């Protein structure tokens, strides 16, 4: 895995953590699993009463990945200190799934390292 890919994964993790904390999800786990071609991010937390934060997250991350951002300098799209709304992560993640019940929410996101459309 390249240093560039590791930096991208780290940026995604930081932005996800910031998003949860700003939206008052203070007790969560964030796990990564890396294989040769895919990095999977799994976030688990107690299901909030207001699910608007989850809906907003799914909407943002479900956008099509923008490979051009990575190719031409993803560093230029901004710093996570300036945004709390997944603006960067949404450009770098390929898909998202949500398992939601009354007690626990599990959000799984995947990033394909060697992007293929």
In short:
The chain has 117 residues and is an alpha+beta fold. It contains four helices and four strands, in the order αββαααββ. It has a four-stranded antiparallel β-sheet with strand order 1-2-4-3, covered by helices on one side.
Description:
It is a single chain. This protein is an alpha+beta fold. 33% of the residues lie in helices and 26% in strands. It has a 4-stranded antiparallel β-sheet with strand order 1-2-4-3, with helices on one face. It is globular. The mean pLDDT is 82.
- Range of strand content: 25-35%
Count of structural domains: 1
User: Residue-averaged pLDDT, rounded?
Assistant: 82
Strand adjacency order, main sheet: 1-2-4-3
Estimated helix fraction: 25-40%
Instruction: Count the DSSP helices.
Output: 4
Q: Distance N terminus to C terminus?
A: 20 Å
CATH-level-2 architecture:
2-Layer Sandwich
Order of helices and strands: HEEHHHEE
Please state the structural category: alpha+beta
Query: Which runs of at least 5 residues are low in confidence (pLDDT < 50)?
Result: none
Rg, alpha carbons: 14 Å
Outline type: globular
Secondary-structure blueprint of this entry?
Blueprint: H1 3-22, E1 28-34, E2 38-46, H2 52-61, H3 67-71, H4 89-92, E3 95-100, E4 104-112
């Amino acid at each position: 895995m390249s240093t560039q890919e590791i930096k991208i994964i780290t940026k995604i993790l930081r932005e996800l953590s910031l998003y949860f904390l700003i939206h008052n999800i203070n007790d969560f786990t964030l796990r990564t699993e890396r294989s040769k071609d895919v990095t999977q991010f799994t976030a688990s937390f107690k299901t909030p009463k207001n699910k608007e934060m989850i809906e907003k997250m799914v909407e943002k991350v479900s956008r099509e990945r923008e490979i051009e951002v990575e190719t031409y300098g993803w560093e230029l799209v901004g710093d996570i200190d300036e945004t709390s709304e997944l603006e960067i992560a949404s450009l770098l993640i390929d898909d998202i799934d949500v398992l939601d019940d009354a007690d626990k929410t599990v959000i799984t996101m995947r990033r394909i390292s060697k992007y293929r459309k």
